[in-house]
Design brief:
With about 425 residues, this protein is α+β, with helices and mostly antiparallel strands. The chain contains 17 helices and 13 strands.
Length: about 425
């Protein structure tokens, strides 16, 4: 009879002990693997999405909220800023790229972002079909949006006011037309409907069209009066454009000096605020890190308890089966083979518990991914085991092996004659 089969039969003969030991192992492994993967993927996603920008300029408020809303698109904006107020910043010699973004509407929960085409270039977004927007109310759809909503080339839709998927006022007078579908980038671009800034302004400039219609209707006798007042009309239009608002300005620096000097200058000398995405994301991950460490600490305690459970289970099994072990010795099994039998039982229990916990952890990631995808537009990937999980597997095996060795010490003291005579 093979020792591995005998170890398996010994293990399943005590189903309650088996269940408790496996449950403890499963809980600890699933907790650790779940936390490792979530924190790793979250950190990777955040860093990937903030990589194109060094600074965000927006309305006064929480800098973290500004970064979350303007770069990651998972929060509400702190407010709007005047377009003419950021003109000086855009022309600053320390700045390489400054891209204005504006939003406030959604289509079925997906944000409609008004910005320049350069925004797509910074995320290396490429078209899978169609073309980029060229005029107002033309949009390109991110890959995830197009798949989730079934958008195709030439489709039209009406936006709703606000960033929530329900309850907003529909802008039926300004339908958007899909002119292009983007390839998947693995960034926030996949979750957006992107158009030009003018589209966002026109949607929210209620009554402006009527004003222009009245201004365009003239009598024949008014020709000279119109010529006389042409300069005044141009000035009025310039003032009107100066009153345009954007949600924020996304900035990439030419020099590290910009990161040192500009944020402080903006925060102290303007009505706007500057936030550094890298710093804010690091601070956010620091806050989450304390929770991650707490969960990992709890999981480690459970793992040690599971090792104690294996020790108690094997010790109880060896004591209850002293007569069987003595008979095995008579049939030719040596002390070393009996020790291997106990070790195999402990290791088999640890392997089954670890694999069960790993699969439960991955199932939990899948379940959480469904929620985060619907709520925030970010999904988690189901990946194979990484280095940390392989290290955890080694630790689990070591704890199980140590527990089995400690429980098997009595095998070396087994007196075959005395044990069988007492039976």
């Amino acid at each position: 009879m093979k020792l591995s089969y005998l170890a398996y039969r010994n293990m399943v003969s005590k189903p309650l002990n088996l269940f408790l030991s496996l449950l403890l192992l499963l809980l600890s492994v699933s907790l650790v693997t779940f936390v490792i993967q979530v924190s790793k993927q979250l950190d990777g996603q955040l860093n990937k999405n903030i990589a194109p920008f060094d600074m965000v300029v927006g309305a006064k408020g929480s800098p973290l909220q500004l970064v979350l809303s303007s770069v990651l698109h998972i929060d509400v904006p702190t407010g709007n800023i005047k377009l003419n107020e950021v003109a000086i910043i855009q022309r600053h010699p320390f700045i390489q790229t400054a891209i204005p973004v504006s939003y406030g509407d959604n289509y079925k929960g997906y944000r409609i972002l008004g910005t320049e085409v350069r925004y797509l270039d910074l995320y290396n977004a490429q078209l899978t079909e169609g073309r980029l927007y060229e005029k107002s109310f033309e949009v390109v759809a991110g890959n995830t949006v197009a798949q989730k909503l079934g958008l195709k080339m030439g489709d039209s839709f009406v936006s709703s006011h606000g960033l929530a998927s329900s309850g907003g006022e529909a802008h039926e007078e300004h339908p958007f037309v899909v002119t292009g579908i983007l390839k998947s980038t693995g960034t926030v671009v996949d979750q957006l409907l992107i158009t030009n800034l003018e589209s966002i302004w026109e949607v929210h400039d209620h009554g402006e069209d009527e004003h222009h219609e009245e201004g365009d209707t003239h009598k024949e006798g008014d020709t000279h009066e119109e010529d006389d007042n042409h300069e005044e009309e141009v000035e009025t239009l310039e003032e009107h454009d100066a009153e345009k608002e954007i949600t924020s300005l996304l900035v990439k620096f030419k020099s590290p000096l910009g990161m040192v000097q500009l944020p402080r200058f903006i925060n102290e000398n303007t009505s706007m605020q500057a936030a550094l995405p890298g710093f804010e994301v690091q601070r956010l991950m620091g806050l989450l890190g304390s929770g991650v460490q707490t969960v990992n600490g709890i999981a480690l305690v459970i793992l040690l308890v599971s090792g104690l459970s294996i020790f108690i289970s094997l010790l109880k099994t060896i004591r209850e089966r002293r007569q069987e072990l003595a008979l095995l010795r008579i049939y030719g099994l040596r002390t070393g083979q009996l020790l291997r039998l106990a070790l195999l039982e402990g290791l088999l229990l640890a392997i089954i518990g670890f694999l069960s916990g790993w699969f439960v952890g991955r199932f939990s990631i899948w379940a959480v991914s469904l929620y985060t995808q619907d709520s925030y537009g970010y999904g988690l990937q189901i990946t194979g085991p990484d280095k940390m999980e392989l290290f955890l597997f080694g630790v689990t095996m070591a704890i199980a092996l140590m527990s089995a060795l400690l429980a098997s010490r009595s095998i070396f003291k087994l007196n075959v004659a005395k044990t069988l005579s007492d039976a």
